[in-house]
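stage 2 :: seqdesign
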């Protein structure tokens, strides 16, 4: 499953299993019938990090005094990463709060998380970056990292996130200053682009402004996939038909 959104002003949580392989096993493993974590596309993984799952201590429903070890998926990976970030903030509170801009606090914490993450993956083809982003969380090592200087942090500032994808806008032929209906089409298409593996295969990097490498044949295929997707609205299918009629 792809990361759900073209956003980089956050930390995306992915899953790693005990043997340093991704929590991405559609056929499951052991007593689990399915292991489907979040990862990819590659362009979004630069602000991602993984934590171990499953078999994480987990509260048991309606049993206030009992814990199990069935915490699994990104639901159990996320609080590990968030806890490490919170501990870093507490330990380095004075240095962080003395920074001149608030975004620098975020970037300092992300630097500590990402720079110390374990750069390792076993039993899967490909690179750890695709499945784990910056690697696997190493909380104890994270806490040892000093707060960087202001110059370093200023260069780390991210651009403002937006829900819209310029790449998709250009494919659909949407104008600047679009109507509310066209914005809704773009948001709908973003959801499809980030959840449909066949659409991902074509566009590969959906948060880029550059569509020069996408041929007319690929655009037609892209539009056909939109039209055939059962989750596409009739309005989006009509937009796809216009693309096909124009390019074929």
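stage 2 :: out
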């Amino acid at each position: 499953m792809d990361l759900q959104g073209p956003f980089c002003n956050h930390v995306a949580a992915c899953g790693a299993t005990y043997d340093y392989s991704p929590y991405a096993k559609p056929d499951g493993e052991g007593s689990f019938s399915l292991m489907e974590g979040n990862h990819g596309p590659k362009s979004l993984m630069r602000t991602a990090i993984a934590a171990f799952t499953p078999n994480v201590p987990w509260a048991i429903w309606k049993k206030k005094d009992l814990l199990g070890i069935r915490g699994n998926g990104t639901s159990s990976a996320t609080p590990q990463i968030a806890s490490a970030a919170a501990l870093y903030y507490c330990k380095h509170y004075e240095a962080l709060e003395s920074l001149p801009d608030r975004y620098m606090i975020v970037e300092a914490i992300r630097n500590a998380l990402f720079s110390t993450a374990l750069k390792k993956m076993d039993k899967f083809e490909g690179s750890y970056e695709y499945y784990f982003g910056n690697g696997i969380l190493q909380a104890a090592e994270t806490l040892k990292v000093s707060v960087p200087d202001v110059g370093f942090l200023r260069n780390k500032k991210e651009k403002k996130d937006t829900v819209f994808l310029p790449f998709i806008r250009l494919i659909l032929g949407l104008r600047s200053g679009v109507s509310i209906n066209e914005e809704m089409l773009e948001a709908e298409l973003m959801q499809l682009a980030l959840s449909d593996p066949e659409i991902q295969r074509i566009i590969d990097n959906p948060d880029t402004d550059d569509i020069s490498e996408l041929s007319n044949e690929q655009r037609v295929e892209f539009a056909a996939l939109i039209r055939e997707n059962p989750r596409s609205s009739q309005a989006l299918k009509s937009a796809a038909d216009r693309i096909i009629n124009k390019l074929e």
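stage 3 :: structure notes
- The first helix runs from residue 74 to 91.
- Strands lie at 12-16, 24-25, 35-36, 48-52, 56-60, 63-71.
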